[in-house]
Design goal:
binds zinc ion; elongated; Znf_RING/FYVE/PHD; 47% helix; two-stranded antiparallel sheet; 3-stranded antiparallel beta sheet; 5 strands; 132 residues
C-alpha cells in the first residue's frame, strides 16, 4: 500500500506556513519542509499532527489539545492543518461522535445535574455543524 506523505505546499490557503523545525518532533527539523503554525503558536507538520490527534481520539478525548501547551485546537483547524484525507475525516468524526456519546453516558452516571449534559451535547452539535 502506498500512502502519500502529507506535505504542505505554498499554495495551501488559510494555513500559516513556516519553515521552522517541528515543536512536537525533535527529529523533524528539515528546513526545506513547510510546516503549519497552529493557533496556539506551536509548529507541527501534518503527519505528526494527524498521529497526535488520532492518539487523543483513541484515548477517548472529545476535543484536541496541544500536548505542549494544552491549548485547544478546533476540529476544523486540525482537519485543515493535518490535511486529513476524506477517510481520515470520517474516522475522526465517527470517533469524536463515539467519544462524545461515551462522555455523555459517563456524565449522566456521575452527575445529577442535567445542565452538564446539555452543555456537552450543545458543544458536540456546534462542532458538527461547524465542520460541514
Ligand atoms: Zn501549543
Amino acid at each position: 500500500m502506498s500512502e502519500e506523505i502529507k506535505k504542505f505546499s505554498p499554495f495551501d490557503k488559510g494555513i500559516k506556513l513556516v519553515s521552522k523545525p517541528s515543536d512536537l518532533d525533535e527529529y523533524d527539523d528539515d528546513p526545506s519542509v513547510l510546516r503549519a503554525q497552529l493557533s496556539c503558536g506551536h509548529v507541527i507538520d501534518p503527519e505528526t499532527l494527524t498521529d497526535c490527534c488520532r492518539a487523543q481520539l483513541e484515548d477517548g478525548q472529545i476535543e484536541f489539545r496541544c500536548p505542549l501547551c494544552r491549548k485547544e485546537w478546533t476540529y476544523n483547524e486540525v482537519r485543515k492543518l493535518a490535511k486529513l484525507t476524506i477517510d481520515e475525516q470520517s474516522t475522526f468524526e465517527e470517533r469524536l461522535g463515539t467519544n462524545t456519546v461515551k462522555k455523555l453516558i459517563d456524565l449522566r452516571d456521575s452527575f445529577e445535574d442535567d445542565s452538564h449534559i446539555v452543555s456537552h451535547a450543545a458543544a458536540f452539535l456546534t462542532l458538527h455543524i461547524a465542520s460541514d
